[in-house]
């Protein structure tokens, strides 16, 4: 099955909507712009396979509300949550809810295209999730046991102070571990770290990969 090139951008901020739409059109996507979740959902039941970029904060329906509605009607649409207010808890909520990815605004063109490509590929190849999980485990292999402990805390939606208390270390040490994790994963944002974490199942102790090396 050939991957779709259709992308729906749902954001109440026209400037953001137009800017994201322009980046996607430049990359040869078939782009549709929507000012809110309500108007988008009115026709979503008839949409073919696509990716939807959903702003997390919109009037009437949030991006997560729209994501949930798409799931209820069985729309073949992979979702990416957009936010200008990124934090650990929000990212965890979005990814646990089944969003394909979570991007913080302003979004770099390269990160946007990579996320959209991955989302659309997941629709074209049902086995994509298993492949993504395998790659995620490989990426986490260099992490030390303590770095994995910190990563599990982040995947649980905890802040640095809470993770520090759980592990008996200082918040500053947690920050150092977070920086190490991002460097080893080649991640540019917390959302990228969490994306890999959930793909590998590190929030589930039974599914967590075994790290190499010492603390």
Characterization of this structure:
The longest helix has 16 residues, at about 110-125. The chain is about 55% helix and about 15% strand. α3 (about 65-75) links the parallel β3 (about 50-55) and β4. It has 2 domains: about 5-125, Rossmann fold (3-Layer(aba) Sandwich); about 130-200, Winged helix-like DNA-binding domain superfamily/Winged helix DNA-binding domain (Arc Repressor Mutant, subunit A), CATH 1.10.10.10. It is an alpha/beta fold.
Write the layout of secondary structure elements.
Elements: E1 6-10, H1 14-26, E2 30-34, H2 37-44, E3 50-55, H3 63-73, E4 77-83, H4 88-96, E5 101-104, H5 109-124, H6 128-140, H7 145-155, H8 160-167, H9 171-185, H10 190-200
Parallel strand pairs: 1-2, 1-3, 3-4, 4-5
Helix pairs in contact: 2-3, 4-10, 6-10, 7-8, 7-9, 7-10, 8-9
